[in-house]
Amino acid sequence: MSEWLVLSIAMASACAVVLTIAVLNNRRIADDDDPSETPDVIEYMTMMIGVVYAIVLGLAIAGVWEGRSAAQESVRLEAQALHEVQARSSVYPAEVRDRIRADVDAYVAHVLDAEWKVMSEKGTLTERGTELLDRVRADVTDYEPQTDHEGQAYQPLVDQVAAADDARSSRGQNAGATMPGVVWFGLIIGALVTVGLIFTLQIRRTFRELLLAGLFSALIAFLLFLIWDFDAPFGRGISATAEPFLDLFPEATR
């Protein structure tokens, strides 16, 4: 069963139960009942809906911000691991060391020049990037250490390549949008309901009330835009950056 069908059934059932109870309860009200003696339910519901929606907005903003932070951290870990591969390979013979460093530079250049754009537009990694990283792995793992010093550096180099591969996979998982469609449905419907409840109150055309209503609506629109902007960590304005690569590989250009 589709999640949208389940959601529709749940929402319709909840509305039906509440409306049924309200109608049955209204039939039991005596003729001499005085509604002025009970609190105004409209003000109470407006307050509760606003509080609930504020909590939902806060959780959504925290979620997408955490996703952006995780994406930025994966970039930092990947760049640091590749930098360690270059630095630790200094104990190898010049031919092997130069080949490892050249392949690392080629991979970093591809990430900055091509893969970053693909991530921002399509939310995926490139096959070419995978091939270049596999080449770096082969450079490290295929070499047989000739001395004890080289042997001591071999396993740390292998571990750093594995760390770079793991960080790259994490970067790929964070490249696309993270907010499910059903959450966006709730956020947009909640915004419409929350703003619409303004008109259930006795709002007048005074400058102060109109200004507050406008600012309230603009605030909700801004928060929704913020969630949308953070939702794609590599694809929009406030996105994760390639600064760790540029800091550790200054010769690379975008």
Automatic annotation (TrEMBL):
Keyword Signal appears in the UniProt entry: no
The species this protein was found in: Streptomyces arboris
- Its domain of life reads Bacteria
Which terms are listed as keywords in the entry? Membrane, Transmembrane, Transmembrane helix
Q: Where are the transmembrane segments?
A: 6-24, 44-65, 182-203, 210-228
Protein name, as recorded: DUF4239 domain-containing protein
